[in-house]
């Protein structure tokens, strides 16, 4: 399900994604302009030339969305196992260890409680830097628990997605997380609690085909690539090169798949307003 | 003429030798004796070969062009099948077949992927790879079944949801996600059987049911072995390794507690004896369906919730002692 090309395969080479590198200048991965790093930082990591929204870390995302100091993380110690004894060029436990050392997290989703303009909510944020934000057992379980807490406490849930899809290394168990998390969203809906999803660049595969597309309101970040099948798989199937706009947030808006595209600097305010109505 | 897979060569050779001897047989005792010996050897070879199939060999059986399809099962054990078409919005996706039928004296909704057998039919059915309208048709039929309190039987056999431009434009991911969400809460008994290939989200979109059964040589996986090999090994030729690594066989899934029953196949696979296979499938469906029909809708939902809620393997450290 993680239909990503090799270059951006989360599990293989997570560091090759366009990212904000050290140094004074950086090259925008969208418009390819060289831009001044500080200017990008000051601008919520948005390219001043083309408005491309660079990937931001989970910490930055939480800071961007919640009132200062309100976020409390849950289940940070929930850790992955290796149920399949999976090994490709590298054994899964080794890969996990490397990712855990790199990110300081046990797995690819952070969940917890915070507030937006004083209103309490449950927030879950995918960490793309951890195996491409892929969804395995830990991601599924943490999201379910977060949703269940929300039901108990009668709070809305906001989920920020950026993921390559289901995690291959946990095989069928990863696929089943799609069913498990979607069922939790169904229960949240029956409790009439709002579920807002924010789709950042990139969101693909089994995450799009489950929780990401189940938001009562679906928000996309400008120019974010969002889809089911990865562009390379589609290109191989249709034997044609895809246009740059394909699967971008603007394309999804045009085709009626997302509710709105919201610039990062207006994200918190927009989510706050939406929650005011729901 | 049987359709043999590469690894079935020893069996083909033996069967050819037997045929030749039978054809040339003059009834001499020595020839009869030789035939008897070869038949015994054939039986032994078959038993050994099919008892020790590799995951990749099973995948090939699961994808066999002659493998019985949903239509074959409907023909074998359902009566009065009335096919229902279309998603009421865009098209009738031929990769998914669905309709009302009588099964064991009761009305049921039957829905499943249909790959097609001849090349022409395969093209028509897009090789069993649905577009969003296919999933939306399935959803419409499932809701119809719920409205009239009819059980739902699904048959899973797909390489996956179709990766195309139109599919993305029309919300392939949303269509799959919606099915997962709605299926989790449908208030009627739901059963699925993986009859061939369970390809990822495209399979799961018909597979969130109270009981999931698998034919012995069927496979069910998060990604195709070829796709996995291309990404993780950077080499699609490593598909046999990926098939093993992904733990995608029926016995793997039973061990991982993802499926509820393995339905044994006739020796050589379901396509060698479709009638016997259909009888076994019907029997398993009857057993599970009768059990589910005993439950109230609330119990059904609670059990379905628990079934999916407990899937996953992780370490949950106890909270620190304060
Ligand atoms: Zn730019």
Characteristic terms for this protein:
A: 278 residues; 2-enoyl-CoA Hydratase, Chain A, domain 1; seven-stranded mixed sheet; 9 helices; 18% strand; B: 322 residues; alpha/beta; 48% helix; globular; binds zinc ion
Question: Which SSEs are present, and which pair or pack?
Answer:
The complex is a heterodimer of chains A (278) and B (322).
Chain A: E1 25-27, E2 34-36, H1 37-42, H2 58-65, E3 72-74, E4 79-80, H3 92-103, E5 109-116, E6 119-126, H4 137-153, E7 157-163, H5 171-190, E8 195-203, H6 205-208, E9 217-220, H7 231-238, H8 249-254, E10 260-261, H9 267-277
Parallel strand pairs in A: 6-7, 7-8, 8-9, 9-10
Antiparallel strand pairs in A: 1-2, 3-5, 5-6
Chain B: H1 9-24, H2 29-51, H3 55-62, H4 70-77, E1 79-83, E2 96-103, E3 106-113, H5 119-124, H6 132-147, E4 152-158, H7 165-169, H8 172-183, E5 190-199, H9 200-204, E6 211-215, E7 219-221, H10 225-233, H11 239-245, H12 250-255, E8 261-263, H13 274-293, H14 297-309, E9 314-315
Parallel strand pairs in B: 3-4, 4-5, 5-6, 5-7, 6-8
Antiparallel strand pairs in B: 1-2, 2-3
Helix pairs in contact in B: 1-2, 3-11, 4-13, 6-8, 10-11
């Amino acid at each position: 399900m993680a239909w990503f090309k090799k270059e951006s395969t989360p599990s293989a080479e997570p560091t090759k994604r366009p990212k904000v590198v050290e140094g004074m200048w950086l090259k925008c991965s969208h418009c390819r302009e060289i831009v001044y790093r500080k200017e990008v930082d000051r601008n919520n990591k948005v390219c001043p030339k083309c408005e491309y929204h660079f990937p931001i870390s989970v910490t930055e995302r939480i800071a961007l969305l919640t009132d200062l100091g309100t976020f409390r993380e849950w289940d940070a110690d929930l850790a992955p196992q290796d149920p399949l004894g999976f090994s490709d060029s590298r054994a899964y436990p080794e890969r996990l260890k490397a990712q855990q050392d790199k990110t300081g997290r046990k797995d690819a989703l952070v969940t917890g409680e915070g507030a937006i303009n004083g209103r309490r909510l449950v927030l879950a944020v995918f960490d793309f830097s951890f195996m491409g934000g892929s969804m395995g057992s830990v991601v599924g379980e943490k999201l379910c628990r977060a949703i269940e807490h929300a039901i108990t406490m009668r709070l809305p849930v906001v989920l920020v997605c950026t993921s390559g899809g289901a995690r291959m290394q946990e095989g069928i168990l990863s696929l089943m997380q799609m069913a498990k998390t979607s069922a939790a969203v169904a229960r949240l809906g029956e409790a009439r609690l709002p579920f807002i999803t924010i789709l950042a660049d990139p969101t693909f595969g089994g995450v799009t085909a489950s929780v990401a597309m189940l938001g009562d309101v679906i928000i996309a970040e400008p120019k974010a690539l969002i889809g089911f099948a990865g562009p390379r798989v589609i290109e191989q199937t249709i034997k044609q090169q895809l246009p740059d706009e394909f699967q971008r947030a603007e394309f999804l808006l045009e085709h009626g798949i997302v509710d709105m595209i919201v610039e990062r600097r207006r994200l918190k305010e927009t989510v706050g307003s939406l929650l005011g109505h729901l | 003429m049987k359709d043999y897979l590469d690894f079935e060569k020893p069996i083909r050779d033996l069967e050819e030798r037997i045929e030749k001897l039978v054809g040339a047989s003059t009834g001499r005792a020595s020839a009869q004796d030789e035939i008897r010996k070869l038949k015994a050897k054939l039986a032994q070879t078959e038993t050994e070969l099919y008892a020790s199939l590799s995951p990749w060999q099973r995948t090939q059986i699961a994808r066999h062009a002659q493998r019985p399809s949903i239509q074959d099962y409907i023909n074998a054990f359902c009566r009065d099948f009335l096919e229902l078409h279309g998603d009421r919005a865009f098209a009738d996706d031929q990769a998914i077949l669905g309709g009302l039928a009588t099964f064991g004296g009761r009305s049921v909704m039957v829905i499943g992927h249909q790959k097609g057998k001849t090349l022409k039919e395969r093209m028509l059915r897009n090789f069993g790879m649905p577009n969003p309208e296919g999933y939306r048709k399935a959803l419409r039929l499932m809701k119809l079944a719920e409205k009239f309190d009819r059980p739902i039987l699904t048959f899973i056999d797909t390489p996956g949801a179709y990766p195309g431009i139109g599919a993305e434009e029309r919300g392939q991911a949303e269509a799959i996600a919606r099915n997962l969400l709605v299926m989790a809460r449908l208030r009627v008994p739901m059963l699925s059987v993986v009859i061939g290939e369970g390809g990822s989200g495209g399979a799961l979109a018909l597979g969130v049911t109270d009981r999931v059964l698998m034919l012995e040589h069927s496979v069910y996986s998060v990604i195709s072995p070829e796709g996995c090999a291309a990404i993780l090994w950077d080499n699609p030729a490593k598909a046999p390794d990926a098939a093993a690594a992904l733990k995608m066989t029926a016995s793997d899934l039973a061990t991982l507690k993802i499926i509820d029953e393995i339905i044994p196949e006739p020796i050589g696979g379901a396509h060698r004896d479709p009638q016997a296979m259909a009888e076994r499938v019907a029997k398993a469906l009857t057993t599970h369906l009768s059990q589910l029909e005993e439950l109230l809708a609330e119990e059904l939902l609670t059990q379905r919730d628990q079934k999916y809620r407990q899937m996953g393997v992780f370490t949950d450290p106890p909270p620190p002692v304060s």
